[in-house]
Amino acid sequence: MLILKLRKKAQSWSVDVMVAFIIFIMGIFIFFIYATNYSGEAGENFELMSYEGNMILENLLSEGYPTNWDSGNVNVIGILTDNKMNDTKLERFNELVDTNYDNTKLLFNTRYNYYFNLSVPLEINGIGVDGIGDSGFSTSQNLIKVSRFSTYKNKPVSVYLYIWDG
User: Fold this and answer.
1) Would you say 142 and 164 are in contact if contact means Cβ atoms under 8 Å apart?
2) Considering only CA atoms, which of 104, 51, 52, 110 is closest in space to residue 77?
3) What sign does the dihedral 110-84-146-140 (CA atoms) show?
4) Rounded to an integer, what distance in angstroms lies between the CA atom of residue 154 and that of residue 85?
5) I need a surface site. Which of 54, 59, 74, 82 has the fewest CB within 10 A?
6) What are the phi and psi torsion angles at 147 (to 5°)?
């Protein structure tokens, strides 16, 4: 009789191990699916942010629409005239951002925050300005920097646009 009792315990123990093993395999499977999908989402987010950053900078480095736009009739914000940065358009862009930053995001057709600056200090209304837009990008985890070259005050400059999810 003693031998019979040992076999029952051994059989019961093997069922417990099988259930635990199945739960363990399911956990590994769920983790694998989550890890695979998570990395894909990060890549898609990076591509979307990069695309939108390039589109914003492409719009900014154009003449805009209409070419002599102001805050009342702007459809596309552009800061160039004859392929050079126009001080008046820069001032208008800065004013739009100061008065209604969210509206400029709508005009750029983006949900991301942005910050525009140059490799040299900007001068708006005779005052030196670091950049235009939301300057809170330094605390962001998802940040993209888009760069271009242009002409400002008859000198070549690097143009930077920081875009982030905030």
Assistant:
1) yes
2) 104
3) negative
4) 9
5) 82
6) -125, 145
pTM of the predicted model, to two decimals? 0.74
**Both structure tokens of 143:** 């940040």
Tokens 């930077």 appear where?
160
Token duo for residue 46? 């990076």
- Provide the residue-wise pLDDT of the chain in tens; the chain has 166 residues: 445 555 555 455 677 788 888 898 888 888 877 776 665 556 678 889 999 999 999 999 999 999 999 989 999 999 999 999 999 999 999 999 999 999 999 999 999 999 999 999 999 988 999 999 998 877 777 899 999 999 999 999 999 999 998 7
Count of positions (residues) in the chain: 166
